[in-house]
Amino acid sequence: MSDALMPTYARAELAFERGQGPYLFDVEGRRYLDFAAGIAVNSLGHAHPHLVAALSGQAAKLWHCSNLYRIPEGERLAERLCAASFAERVFFCNSGAEAMECSFKAVRRHHDARGAPERYRIVTLTGAFHGRTLATLSAAANPKHLAGFTPAVDGFDQVAFDNMNELRAAITPETAAVLIEPVQGEGGIRVASPEYLKALRQVCDEFGLLLVFDEVQCGVGRTGRFFAYESAGAAPDVMAVAKGLGGGFPVGACLTTSAVGDCMTGGSHGSTFGGNPLAMAVANAVLDVVLADGFLPRVAEIAGLLRARLEALVARHPDVLTEVRGAGLLLGLRCKVANRDVLDAVRAEGLLAVTAGDNVLRLAPPLIIDDSHVEEAVDILDRVCGGLAGSN
User: Fold this and answer.
1) Distances (CA, A) of 130 to 175, 190, 212, 240, 289
2) How far is Cα 79 from Cα 307, in angstroms, rounded to an integer?
3) Close Cβ partners of 208 (under 8 Å, ≥ 6 residues apart)
4) Cα gap 218→254, rounded to integer Å
5) Which pLDDT tens digit goes with each residue over 303-330?
6) What's the whole-number average pLDDT of the chain?
7) Would you say residue 392 has pLDDT above 60?
């Protein structure tokens, strides 16, 4: 490890040289089945030919010109995102945290424009993760992540996940919005039920609040729908997306209704690199694939197979695993042993995964996996769980 880098990451002693489809190859040539996908980012795997062609073609023409000028590929991407979702307005940025920051500003601006600047507070939920900026850390209110960075940014009131009574009690004349991840990623792969999301929509309508969804991790096909909220039939007013939208290229977006987005007038927000030609070309290429006929139904199908195999795995290894959580291809195995031990063991066997809260091993493979990759991953997990059970 280089001393020149800030020691902010607990990096594994692995360095990858190239990738192909759902596989990564390290500098020594060893192949790994990538069920981490850059933490749910490489939605179409590695070196997808359509994405490579889009990026290479754009790189040969124009990298950056700034938002002082029109960017046609960004206009096209915004129109496609709106056509495929609840949204009517889009702001492009570079990451999920930036998309969340835009969401926070849009919420405040919306109420201010309606003569209620006192409405600025956002109700958030336990177990949430929204990014690493001061505002997003404050929204999630995780003491571990806030350590050394206090005081927290004011404007957030946290209540228990899936507790409508507590949420209603937290609403005051200063409340502006409710913020939720339809599937909590870092918090332990907890899925908000359709009933819960519908109840949040009803409460927001009742009190004149905005409903904000964080689909940074669970959006863009990961749940088998283009966006996770579709399964509940409860649309937000504001939504942050990123990760899979660029298939590995940094891009984020804040999607809003026109009632919210039209309040973000000239000079109210901006980004030097957001919506640059490279990012827009790649994100449009991602949508070419994800929105193609049959792609998302196939994701749902392979996700069903993976979940069934994992359920059987849990049944075979009750001393190591307790349950399967999640939706689509964002799944979690809750462990009885330390999830870090399971992670290290599967990595040693050639499978990449990620840990999550509540002692969960997170599986977020590329959306392009097939049956053989499911079987390969489950075989590795089966061997590892057998070994861990025998060592206890």
Assistant:
1) 19, 14, 12, 10, 27
2) 34
3) none
4) 14
5) 999 999 999 999 999 999 999 999 999 9
6) 97
7) no
H, E, C per residue of the chain: CCCCCCCCCCCCCCCEEEEEECEEEECCCCEEEECCHHHHCCCCCECCHHHHHHHHHHHCCCCCCCCCCCCHHHHHHHHHHHHCCCCCEEEEECCHHHHHHHHHHHHHHHHHHCCCCCCCEEEEECCCCCCCCHHHHHHHCCHHHHCCCCCCCCCEEEECCCCHHHHHHHCCCCEEEEEECCEECCCCCEECCHHHHHHHHHHHHHHCCEEEEECCCCCCCCCCCCCHHHHCCCCCCEEEECHHHHECECCEEEEECHHHHCCCCCCCCCCCCCCCHHHHHHHHHHHHHHCCCCHHHHHHHHHHHHHHHHHHHHHHCCCCEEEEEEECCEEEEEECCCHHHHHHHHHHCCEECEEECCCEEEECCCCCCCHHHHHHHHHHHHHHHHHHHHHC
Question: Residue 38 has what pLDDT?
Answer: 97
Tokens (6 digits) for 101: 């920051």
CATH 3.30.505.50 fits 16-34+293-391, yes or no: no
Phi, psi of 2 (to 5 degrees): -80, 135
Domain boundaries, the chain: 16-34+293-391, 50-290
Q: What is the pLDDT of residues 248-274, one digit of tens each?
A: 999 999 999 999 999 999 999 999 999
55 closest CA partner among 255, 338, 46, 23: 46
Q: Could you tell me which of 293, 281, 364 has the C-alpha nearest to residue 51? A: 281
Looking only at the bridges linking them, the beta strands covering 183-184 and 175-180 are: unpaired
Cis (ω within 30 of 0) for the bond into 151? yes
pLDDT at 274: 97
CATH assignment of 50-290, among 3.40.640.10, 3.10.350.10, 3.40.50.300, 2.60.40.1120: 3.40.640.10
pTM exceeds 0.85: yes
Enumerate residues 6+ apart whose C-beta is below 8 A from 9. none
Structure confidence at residue 389 (pLDDT) = 77
Say how many C-beta atoms besides its own lie within 10 A of residue 372's C-beta: 9
User: What local confidence, expressed as pLDDT, does residue 2 receive?
Assistant: 83
